[in-house]
Amino acid sequence: MKWQNSALAAVLLAVGLAAAPQIGIAAETLKLGLSLPLSGNGSTWGLGMKWAAEAAAKQINSGGGIKADGKIYTLEVLAYDNKYNTADGTKVAQTLFSRDNVDFVVGVMGTGPTQALQAIAERRDKLIFTTAWGRNVKGPEHPLTFTQAHTSSESMPELFGYIKKEHPNAKTVALINPNDATGKAVEADARAFWSKIGMNVVMSDFFERDTTAFQSVATKIVQAKPDIVDASSGPPDIAGQIFKELRTQGWKGIQVIAAGGSAATLTKTAGEAADGTYMGLVVDFASPAATETQRRLNGEAEKVLGEPLNPVHVSTWDATMALKAGIEKANSLDPKKVADALRTVVFESSYGPAAFGGAETYGIAEQILVPVTVAAVRNGKIVELARVKPKELEERLKVKQ
C-alpha cells in the first residue's frame, strides 16, 4: 500500500509539472513590437497586421506559451503608428527599443520605417520581421532581418507573367507609386520585371501619400496612352481613387496593383472601376483553397476589421508562429541563435508548413516561403486565378519527410 501511494504521488507530481503553465507557475513575458501605419493611407494594412499579431499571441499564450532553456514565456504585443513614413518610423523605433525594450519585432510596414527601425535594432542585436519590399533592407549585411510576406521578387514575376499571357497584345505600361522609400524601391523592381517580359514603360509618376485629388495624375496617364496601369505599391484605397478617375477620363485599359493587399478597400474607393483589376498579395481566405486556420482567422477578423483578411494582415500571425518555432528550436532567446534556427526550421504558418529561404536571390535565407497567388476583382469580390508553391519550399518539405 505504501508503494502504491508513492507511485501515485510520483504520477501526480509528473502531471502537475506538465500542467504547470496552466496552474500558476510564473511565466516570463516577451515583448513583441510592431511599427505599422495605424492611421491614414495604409492603415487598412496596419490595423489588420496588429489584429493578427495579437491573435497569434493569444493562441500561443493559451497553449502554454513558448518554452526555451527551461523557462516558459508568454507574449505581449506593443503596436505604434509609423504613419507610413521614415520620420514617424524613427520615433516608433526609439519608443520600442529605448522605452519599451521589446525583445523582438514581428512586423514593420514600409521601407522607410523598416530602415529606421533596422538601424537601431542592429546596434542592439535585435531580430525583426518586416513586410518591406525594398531590397536594401535584405541580404547578408542584415542577418537579423526576416521578411514575413512576399515581396516584388516573389510576387511580380508570377503576376506580370500571368497578365502578359492573358493579354498578349498589351505592349505598354504606366507606373504610379507613392513618393517615398517604399514607392521608389517598388517602382524600380516593377520597371525591371515589366521590361523583362517585353513591356515598354511609357511613363512613371509619383504622388505624395497625403494626396486626395488625382485628376492631374490621371490626366498624365491618359495622355501617355498605356495598355496597362500598374499602381505598384498602392495602397489600395489610393489606387482605387486613381482607377476611378481614369475611368472618368475615358481610359479603359488593364489595371494592376502589384502589392494589392485588399480588394475590399479597393472596391470601396473605386466602385465599379475596381472590376477586373489584377492584384498581387491577395488571397481569398474564405475559399475552400484556404487552410482551416485561415478560414477561422478570416471569420474572426472580419467581425473586427470590417473586411476580409489578406496576406499582408496574416503576415504577423506567420511571423509570430515562426518566432515561436525558432526560439524553441534554438532553445534560447539569443537573437543570433534564433536567426540561425529560423533559416532551417519548418514551422506551421497560416498557409500550413512554411520555412525561410531565398538565399539564391538575396544571399541569405530570410524570405518566407509560402504560396504565391495571382488574383483579380470580379463583381466586387476577389477571385484567385493562380497559386504557385515555391519550389524551394517543396524541396524543404521533402527533406523533412
Protein model, in words:
With 401 residues, the protein is an alpha/beta fold. It folds into two domains: 27-150 and 291-370, Rossmann fold (3-Layer(aba) Sandwich); 152-280, Rossmann fold (3-Layer(aba) Sandwich). The chain is 45% helix and 21% strand. The protein is built from 14 helices and 16 strands. The protein has helices spanning 2-18, 43-62, 86-99, 111-123, 152-166, 181-196, 215-224, 236-248, 263-270, 292-305, 311-330, 335-342, 359-362, 391-400, and strands spanning 28-36, 66-68, 71-81, 104-108, 127-130, 145-147, 172-178, 200-207, 228-230, 254-257, 278-279, 347-349, 352-357, 367-369, 372-378, 381-388. β12 (347-349) and β13 form a beta hairpin. α3 packs parallel to α4 (111-123) and α7 (215-224) packs across α8 (236-248). The longest helix is centred in the first third of the chain and has 20 residues, at 43-62. The chain is globular.
